[in-house]
């Protein structure tokens, strides 16, 4: 199953020195459009938020944010938000733009997409894990009574 019940850290709880990575492989990589659409469809069943990291292996900023993205996916605590963390390399094995990146017109990386019920809610390029966390909190606030609104 792709879903993880997790404790989402509050803004400011993330430490730059914390080099502990996720204890399990909780960021799932997908390669095809069919696989991606299948995950989005499955996420509808649990009303899960789907967060996608679009990256390129040759991108320094993508490598920089990857560890922070992995840290966001870990943990299980009091907050019961359903979040699926995905990543997708926009360059395929033939060194060409992937079918997913082409269909979604991905031109910049690292780029993060946030989906709920199969609908794209927000997309932005960033190297800032706090910005990603704020978006996760914004879209999972109704799933947890303890989450404070993002200002």
From TrEMBL:
Gene3D superfamilies for the chain: Glutaredoxin
Pfam families referenced in this protein's UniProt entry, alphabetically: Thioredoxin (PF00085)
The leader peptide range reads none
Q: Which residues form the Thioredoxin domain?
A: 2-141
Q: Which PROSITE patterns match?
A: THIOREDOXIN_2 (PS51352)
Name a single GO cellular component.
chloroplast
Q: What CDD domains does this protein's entry cite?
A: TRX_family
Q: Which InterPro entries match?
A: Thioredoxin-like_sf, Thioredoxin_domain, TRL4_chloroplastic
The protein here is known as Thioredoxin-like 4 chloroplastic
Q: Origin organism of this chain? A: Phtheirospermum japonicum
**Source lineage:** Eukaryota, Viridiplantae, Streptophyta, Embryophyta, Tracheophyta
């Amino acid at each position: 199953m792709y879903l993880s019940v997790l404790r989402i850290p509050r803004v400011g709880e993330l430490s730059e020195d914390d080099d502990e990575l996720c204890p399990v492989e909780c960021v799932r990589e997908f390669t095809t459009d069919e696989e991606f659409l299948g995950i989005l469809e499955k996420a509808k069943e649990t009303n899960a938020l789907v967060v996608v990291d679009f990256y390129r292996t040759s991108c320094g900023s993508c490598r920089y944010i990857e560890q922070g993205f992995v840290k966001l996916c870990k943990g299980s605590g009091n907050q019961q938000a359903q979040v699926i963390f995905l990543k997708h390399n926009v360059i395929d094995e033939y060194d060409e733009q992937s079918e997913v990146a082409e269909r979604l017109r991905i031109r910049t990386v690292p780029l993060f997409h946030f989906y709920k019920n199969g609908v794209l809610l927000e997309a932005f390029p960033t190297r800032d894990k706090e910005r990603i966390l704020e978006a996760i909190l914004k879209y999972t606030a109704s799933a947890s009574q303890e989450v404070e609104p993002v200002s």
